[in-house]
Specification:
FAD/NAD(P)-binding domain, seven-stranded mixed β-sheet, 15 helices, 18 strands, 25% helix
Length: 529
């Protein structure tokens, strides 16, 4: 069978590339490993009610294999990804061949819906400044941003961050803030000149979490389940769009298959896949092939297809740090029981016009386990256990994301054993912005210390990009054209974050989805008169 389009991957890029291709009437096949969560009893009550009454809570809070205690004896992993019911998102089939990590804690997903099955739901538009190294402007993405906003439901409002986050058209009203976040926002609004003079702007986040029902999806229940129960109806995941495409029979879906390589002829592309069940290989035929397996896997497929073990492809990611802030007046207060548990506020730091922007997400501490923060307290273990109950309700976490650009020491390369090598040099001179945040928020009654700031190793920002960057020069190998076509190819396109020539300090998932939809339209134009 000859397909019009085969899409590799079902994450944010793959799903929206398939959505666009199907909407334009193209015969579309999605090839995917498609790991799913185990069939378990769904959690329906507030997590604090479950912790008070459920005798089986250990299974989903700690895990049968002590998954939630991962960071006590393994390299750092974000709280949501180490939670027992979310571990399927980063599980790796044996046939995938684990990445060789050289200074870069790379994570990849073979889940149905990809890494966005466990994301923080931050959905931010790129502006012209963010896209200054891209071969197109924000106006080209705006129609796709608008379409996705209508489809998935995004909350936000017009405030001081609108100039960075773009149009508010189609947004739902913001989610309710936790009391500490609301207090911080109120303080900022009263003393805006003080904060702005120090390069700080604060406002509501843009979140793909419903504040009112949309279709058959219910609004946010403020039940603190976001770290423990996958597939909550209020939090968007690409898996929801993929489910709808399959229910409407708009696409075909091949599960349990890993894309290995491709080859191109004058008339078609042959895509080689490996069945994870039978260990046999299959050759699929298509008129156009869209790579959307993530920046690491797409790069690996391209290098394998060219049997290239020499070339080093660029690697981008958002270095991150975490600043704890404590409100002494809230120590000992009751924990926030009615919360969605994800981003409460966003912060933009830009000391002077033209300087690099840093974006931060501000979280309360209601949903994760207390041990995730307590293990970083500078106290003996007994003192940590005693203090967590009183200190955590008074704590905000500021997670900073830094922009990234191509550097010679940061790259991926295919090894002779067919594994992908990821190398990334640790960013130096971090700490200046963190110090500014600590000093500035003293005015809001929030205290911290530079020694409490955490700097996760490279790779833990989990925003990977740039391995097959877009450029106007279509003669450069392993780059992509402004339309998404792989250089020196006629029928192979790339729709994921591989195409980013730079990585702004923003969650890039919404832009991945918008550009994937744009790429599908570009592909359709090549297939129709």
């Amino acid at each position: 069978m000859l397909y019009d389009v085969i899409v590799a991957g079902s994450g944010a890029a793959g799903t929206w590339a398939a959505f666009g291709a199907a909407r334009l009437g193209l015969k579309t096949l999605v090839v995917d490993v498609g790991l799913q969560p185990k069939p378990e009893r769904r959690l329906e009550q507030n997590i604090f009610e479950l912790r008070r009454t459920d005798i089986n809570q250990r299974q989903y809070l700690i895990g049968d294999e002590y998954e939630s205690l991962h960071n006590l004896y393994q390299p750092y992993l974000s709280p949501k990804l180490k939670a027992p019911r979310y571990r399927y998102v980063i599980a790796e089939p044996e046939a995938s061949m684990r990445i060789k990590k050289e200074g870069f804690d790379a994570l990849q997903s073979f889940a149905y819906g990809g890494l966005a099955s466990a994301w923080g739901a931050g959905t931010y538009r790129y502006d012209d400044d963010d896209l200054r190294k891209f071969p197109f402007t924000a106006s080209e993405l705006d129609p796709y941003y608008d379409a996705i906003t209508r489809e998935i439901g995004i909350t936000g409002t017009q405030d001081d961050l609108q100039e960075h986050f773009g149009s508010t058209a189609g947004l739902q009203t913001p989610l309710k803030l936790d009391r500490l976040a609301q207090r911080l926002l109120n303080t900022y609004q009263r003393k805006k000149k003080y904060y702005n003079a120090r390069g700080i702007k604060l406002g509501y986040p843009r979140l793909a979490i419903l504040s009112r029902a949309l279709g058959d999806r219910t609004a946010c229940a403020y039940d603190n389940l976001s770290f423990w129960q996958p597939q909550l109806p209020s939090i968007y995941s690409p898996a929801m769009t993929l489910d709808q495409l399959l229910r409407d029979k708009k696409i075909e879906y091949l599960r349990d298959h890993l894309v290995i390589r491709y080859s191109e002829s004058d008339t078609e592309v042959s895509v080689e896949t490996l069945s994870l069940k039978t260990k046999t290989k299959t050759l699929l035929k298509t008129r156009r092939f869209i790579l959307a397996a993530g920046a690491l896997n797409s790069a690996k497929i391209v290098l394998r297809s060219h049997d290239d073990y020499q070339t080093q492809l660029p690697l981008l990611e958002n270095p991150t740090s975490m600043v704890p802030l404590v409100s002494p007046w809230h120590i000992g207060q009751p924990v926030e029981r009615q919360s969605h548990g994800l981003i409460q506020l966003n912060l933009i730091y830009q000391r002077a016009p033209g300087e690099e922007k840093v974006q931060a997400s501000i979280y309360g501490y209601s949903s994760p386990l207390g041990s995730d923060a307590g293990m970083n307290f500078p106290l003996a273990i007994k003192a940590v256990m005693a203090s967590c109950k009183y200190v955590l309700p008074s704590m905000l976490i500021v997670q900073l994301f830094y922009a990234d650009s191509q550097k010679p020491g940061n790259y991926v390369q295919l090894a002779s054993d067919q594994r992908l090598v990821t190398r990334y040099e640790k960013r130096k001179n971090l700490g200046k912005v963190e110090g500014e945040i600590i000093r500035t928020f003293l005015r809001a009654g929030l205290v911290s210390h530079s020694r409490l700031v955490q700097y996760p190793p490279p790779g833990n920002g989990i925003h990977y990009a740039g391995t097959l960057p877009m450029t106007e020069d279509s003669t450069r190998p392993y780059t992509t054209t402004p339309q998404g076509r792989l250089a020196k190819s006629q029928k192979v396109y790339v729709a994921d974050a591989s195409i980013f020539p730079c990585l702004p300090a923003k969650n890039h998932t919404l832009t991945i989805m918008a550009n994937a939809l744009r790429t599908a339209y570009n592909v359709a134009e090549t297939l129709r008169p």
